[in-house]
């Protein structure tokens, strides 16, 4: 009975104590609001200790720690309620935005920090209010600071250049390249600033003016004239300026033959958009004119290729650290593909995700797609891939559009693979050059093949589905991530599946080709053909191809053999053989140039495995569509390389033919003198 009474009294004491504690906390909070600065620092702890001391005197049976703990909990609860109320008021008034996924929540209690930290936090909060993330004012501040830094760098470079008094400016490096970059950037910014003010208004005026023209002007006659005019112009050019070399006329005839082949064997001949086909061929011809016959154009292309190659070669530093000497050519086996070529995919995927996180890649895609759509009428991502394939490889270029592969149609997938196989990557140009091939021809071939790949793929596999990737329907999302480093690391990790997919497919396909060669090697001696192999068969099949690209008659079979090596094995072996023949002067100069253009592409059986592995690793849901269009894309890519050789055969300077004729005359005279 006594224990029960004592417990009831203790309970009453605790209840009274809690009531008194609430009164004390209320008085304390009111006092703190009067003297605001006393709320911070260690003043709260002193007040709590003092109140616990008073309560211990009033109720000596209670533990001081229990009193202090209850006081501290109640004060913390009151602070939390006050902080939540303040946040709600700030969000309602617009002074603070609600937190989203990935945002860092501020959990710092300002009441438990010193005065200096409080000042810093207030300054940060004020800056966030003035320049919120993603706001126009924030972008304006960043652009202004960038502009000031850029001008400072430019002024410093001018001062240094004046002091050195260098008489010559290298436009591809140093001071000259800096000036070129500044001019391009500020022209782009100026155009973007005045576009809506001047260009768009002029477009509306021209649009209203065309509506007032007669009806027949806006009819199909005008469209047909626009399509036929480039073809007529090229035909007139060939007739008026045929040159004294008959092989140049054959090269132009070869272009028509290859286009006819594409039309006859097209997947859907009735759905061909001839505007895209004709525009691509005309662009290829124009690029050939600039790259082959114009020295300044060749220099620009050479400079671009060198810069892209240098950028991609930075991946060797990381590869050397991980793989060590395996990245270098081995004495017995040469370069190890997995350790020397594939590491660039990790680096490029890392860098692409950074560009995507900041929206730079999306801006580039929109600009390129607008230009290509205006010129050829193709969709966005196939156009971007074709432009990137000029300097990137067949497995690297699709990384630029990896987030959108799931939305591509079969025709667009065919165009992507065709572009990758009809060009070569910048990282392998150095190897080809070491074989004795001229860099200017290699770069010219890649650039000429880019528009032709879009053109011929749309001829060989026309679009029959409704694409989601038109410029009007385009939606580009930024790469997800808490920051740029997080997004970049995600890209590097995602490249693992791409690399392993490439390795698996190329091992399987090359092994199957070796098995096929073994069967032919066993069958050949039984039927009296000891030389029977895949290379021999392909070299004989490509003799008509070698003729139609304009190769000299003395070198037709040799060039056909090189094309066969490139198709069955790879372009490395073909260029290596071409380099040996260049040293031996086995081919004429014209045939050497045309062979360089015809071999400039990844269109071989091994590349089928590489691209299928890369694309299916990026987007597994498209595996069926990718494998269905792979063979058509492979054939189209080979013909694109032949078209490029035809254009080069038509554009090869006439002085080469004249020099060859003079050399033959000298040889015949020498032979006649020796015979006498």
Automatic annotation (TrEMBL):
Q: Where in the cell is it found?
A: Cell membrane
Q: What is its main location?
A: membrane
* Membrane topology qualifier: Multi-pass membrane protein
Instruction: Report whether Cell membrane shows up as a keyword of the record.
Output: yes
Q: Which Pfam families match?
A: Gate, Nucleos_tra2_C, Nucleos_tra2_N
TM regions (residue ranges): 21-38, 140-162, 174-194, 221-242, 249-268, 274-294, 335-360, 380-401, 413-433, 492-516, 594-618, 630-649
Q: Give GO cellular component annotations, separated by semicolons.
A: plasma membrane
Q: Which residues form the Concentrative nucleoside transporter C-terminal domain?
A: 441-649
Q: Which InterPro entries match?
A: C_nuclsd_transpt, CNT_C_dom, CNT_N_dom, Gate_dom
Q: Where is the Concentrative nucleoside transporter N-terminal domain?
A: 254-326
Q: Which UniProt keywords apply?
A: Cell membrane, Membrane, Transmembrane, Transmembrane helix
All copies of the Nucleoside transporter/FeoB GTPase Gate domain together span 339-436
In alphabetical order, the GO MF annotations are: nucleoside:sodium symporter activity
Per the record's keyword annotation, is Transmembrane included, yes or no? yes
Family affiliation: Belongs to the concentrative nucleoside transporter (CNT) (TC 2.A.41) family.
UniProt-recorded name of the protein: Sodium/nucleoside cotransporter
Annotated source species: Polyplax serrata (Common mouse louse)
């Amino acid at each position: 009975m006594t224990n029960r009474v004592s417990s009831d009294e203790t309970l009453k004491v605790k209840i009274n104590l809690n009531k008194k504690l609430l009164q004390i906390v209320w008085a304390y909070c009111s006092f703190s609001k009067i003297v605001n600065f006393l709320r911070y620092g260690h003043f709260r702890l002193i007040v709590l200790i003092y109140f616990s001391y008073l309560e211990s005197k009033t109720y000596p049976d209670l533990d001081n720690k229990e009193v202090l703990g209850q006081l501290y909990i109640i004060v913390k609860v009151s602070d939390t309620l006050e902080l939540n109320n303040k946040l709600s008021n700030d969000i309602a008034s617009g002074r603070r935005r609600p937190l989203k996924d990935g945002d860092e929540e501020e959990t710092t209690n300002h009441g438990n920090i010193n005065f200096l930290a409080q000042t810093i936090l207030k300054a940060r909060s004020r800056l966030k209010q003035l320049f919120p993330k993603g706001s126009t004012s924030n972008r304006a501040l960043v652009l202004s600071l960038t502009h000031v830094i850029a001008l400072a760098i430019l002024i410093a470079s001018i001062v240094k250049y004046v002091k050195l008094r260098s008489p010559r400016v290298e436009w591809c490096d140093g001071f000259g390249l800096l000036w070129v970059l500044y001019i391009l950037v500020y022209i782009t910014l100026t155009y973007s600033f005045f576009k809506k003010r001047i260009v768009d208004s002029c477009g509306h005026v021209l649009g209203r003016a065309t509506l007032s023209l007669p009806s027949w002007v806006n009819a199909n006659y005008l469209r047909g004239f626009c399509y036929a005019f480039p073809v007529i112009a090229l035909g007139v050019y060939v007739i008026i300026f045929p040159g004294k070399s008959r092989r140049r006329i054959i090269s132009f005839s070869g272009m028509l033959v290859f286009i006819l082949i594409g039309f006859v064997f097209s997947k859907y001949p009735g759905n061909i958009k001839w505007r895209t086909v004709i525009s691509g061929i005309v662009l290829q011809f124009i690029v050939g004119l600039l790259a082959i016959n114009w020295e300044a154009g060749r220099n620009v292309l050479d400079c671009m290729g060198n810069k892209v190659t240098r950028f991609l070669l930075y991946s060797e530093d990381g590869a050397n650290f991980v793989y060590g000497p395996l990245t270098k050519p081995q004495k017995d086996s040469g370069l190890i593909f997995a350790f020397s070529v594939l590491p660039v995919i990790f680096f490029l995927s890392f860098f692409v995700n950074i560009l995507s996180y900041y929206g730079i890649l999306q801006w580039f895609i929109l600009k390129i797609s607008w230009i290509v759509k205006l010129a050829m009428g193709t969709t966005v991502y196939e156009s971007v891939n074709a432009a990137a394939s000029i300097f990137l490889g067949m497995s690297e270029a699709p990384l630029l559009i990896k987030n959108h592969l799931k939305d591509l149609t079969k025709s667009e997938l065919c165009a992507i693979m065709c572009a990758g196989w009809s060009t070569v990557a910048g990282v392998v140009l150095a190897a080809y050059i070491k074989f004795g091939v001229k860099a200017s021809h290699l770069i010219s071939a890649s650039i000429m093949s880019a528009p032709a790949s879009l053109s011929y793929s749309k001829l060989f596999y026309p679009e029959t589905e409704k694409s989601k990737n038109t410029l009007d329907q385009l939606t580009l999302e930024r790469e997800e991530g808490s920051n740029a480093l997080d997004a970049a690391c995600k890209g590097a990790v995602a490249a693992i599946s791409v690399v392993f997919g490439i390795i698996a497919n190329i091992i399987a396909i090359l092994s199957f080709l070796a098995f096929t060669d073994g069967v032919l090697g066993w069958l050949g001696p039984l039927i009296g053909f000891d030389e029977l192999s895949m290379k021999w068969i392909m070299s004989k099949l490509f003799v008509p191809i070698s003729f139609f690209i304009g190769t000299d008659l003395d070198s037709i079979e040799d060039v056909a053999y090189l094309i066969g090596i490139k198709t069955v094995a790879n372009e490395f072996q073909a260029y290596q053989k071409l380099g040996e023949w260049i040293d031996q002067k086995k081919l004429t100069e014209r045939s050497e140039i045309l062979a360089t253009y015809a071999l400039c592409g990844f269109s071989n059986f091994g590349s089928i495995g590489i691209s299928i592995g890369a694309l299916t690793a990026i987007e597994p849901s498209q595996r069926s569509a990718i494998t269905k269009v792979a063979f058509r894309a492979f054939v189209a890519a080979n013909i694109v390389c032949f078209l490029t050789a035809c254009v080069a055969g038509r554009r090869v300077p006439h002085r080469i033919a004249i020099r060859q004729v003079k050399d033959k005359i000298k040889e015949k005279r020498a032979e006649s003198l020796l015979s006498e």
